[in-house]
DNA sequence: AAACATGGCAACCGCATCGCA
DNA sequence: TTGCGATGCGGTTGCCATGTT
């Protein structure tokens, strides 16, 4: 193949798009809508393949695309979801409105897939993002108690009662009556039963395990059902704080997916139930009678319904309870 | 100032999947 | 059920701008 822009084998032009080509493509889509890409060249005279037209539209011309650097929040989401799903760029992109799979893929390769000194670079980047997120959260959470140590701001409790698995995440903060949410008591790992998933450690590992050995971060604490569990010694508070940041920003469905992943099949079972209790939306308190806004069979939850109404930053979640 | 290295990113390629006849 | 075209996805390439030596 020759240099880009002049290769016209098979009749198709390749290489960078010109403004004139963009204009033709935009006009075509404005009249005919997306899809039927192979007809673009026939209708417009563009010497571009259908695939090329689709790619140009999806990655560059489509309205609503964000330009510029990713925010620390977006970076954090990418890290978390990549730890969860791996190179499922299109899936990850669905959680980042305005960002394309190509952009996320490029970002990941640029920032995390350095061939030289991979561990060092990942560690440095991770620390950088954690610091950014903490600074951002400090700004966002002015009304949330910050006098208590980070380690107690968010604690997780998992209990097994009467053959039921129940995992509950409690968030400290201030409710609509300005009462402090009391964190749950962290349960000692020695009490975990054989068929029981230690969600907090699992969650932590899933969020931050970047794939390779992570000597300064996650440490393996045990194996259960052929799965590995991790704790994050020394930075436990930071990690929990990071999860809280996600929730405060209303990305509830991400958390649900993460926790579904942690619990593996239990959330797909018929009798699994998810309960989400929200105390504040967009800075306005939710009446006590309406706080429990979602409680339904987990099999019906693909993406948490409340996410669509809780996109603003000021959402406060009191509890999310998973049980079966 | 020139040569080289690196980072960022748009675009291409091949394969997988989907939908329809 | 099968074949085929359209579409989607992830990996890769290569250009260009910037930084380094």
TrEMBL record:
Coiled coil: none annotated. InterPro entries: EOBI/EOBII-like_plant, Homeodomain-like_sf, Myb_dom, SANT/Myb. PROSITE patterns: HTH_MYB, MYB_LIKE. SMART domains: SANT. Keywords: DNA-binding, Nucleus, Repeat, Transcription, Transcription regulation. Residues 13-61, 62-116 form the HTH myb-type domain. Residues 9-61, 62-112 form the Myb-like domain. The keyword DNA-binding applies. It is found in: Nucleus. This is R2R3-MYB protein. It comes from Rehmannia glutinosa (Chinese foxglove).
């Amino acid at each position: 193949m020759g240099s880009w822009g002049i290769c016209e084998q098979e009749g198709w032009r390749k290489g960078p798009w010109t403004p004139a080509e963009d204009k033709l493509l935009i006009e075509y889509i404005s009249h005919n809508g997306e899809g039927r890409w192979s007809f673009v060249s026939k209708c417009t005279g563009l010497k571009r393949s259908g695939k090329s037209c689709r790619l140009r539209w999806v990655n560059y011309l489509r309205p609503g695309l964000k330009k510029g650097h990713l925010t620390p929040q977006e970076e954090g989401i990418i890290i978390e979801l990549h730890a969860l799903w791996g190179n499922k760029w299109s899936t990850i992109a669905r959680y980042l409105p305005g960002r394309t799979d190509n952009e996320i893929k490029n970002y990941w390769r640029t920032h995390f897939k350095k061939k030289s000194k991979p561990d060092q670079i990942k560690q440095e980047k991770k620390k950088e993002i954690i610091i950014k997120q903490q600074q951002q959260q400090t700004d966002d959470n002015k009304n949330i108690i910050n006098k208590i140590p980070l380690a107690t701001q968010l604690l997780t409790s998992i209990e097994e009662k009467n053959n039921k698995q129940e995992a509950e995440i409690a968030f400290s903060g201030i409710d609509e009556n300005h009462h402090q949410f009391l964190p749950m008591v962290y349960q000692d790992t020695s009490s975990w039963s054989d068929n029981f998933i230690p969600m907090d450690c699992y969650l932590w590992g899933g969020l931050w395990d970047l794939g390779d050995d992570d000597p300064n971060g996650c440490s393996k604490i045990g194996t259960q059902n052929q799965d590995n569990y991790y704790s994050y010694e020394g930075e436990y508070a930071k990690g929990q704080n990071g999860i809280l940041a996600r929730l405060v920003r209303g990305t509830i469905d991400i958390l649900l997916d993460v926790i579904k992943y942690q619990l593996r099949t239990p959330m797909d079972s018929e009798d699994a139930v998810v309960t989400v209790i929200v105390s504040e939306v967009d800075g306005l308190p939710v009446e006590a009678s309406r706080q429990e806004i979602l409680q339904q069979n987990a099999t019906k939850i693909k993406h948490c319904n409340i996410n669509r109404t809780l996109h603003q930053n000021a959402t406060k979640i009191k509890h999310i309870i998973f049980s079966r």
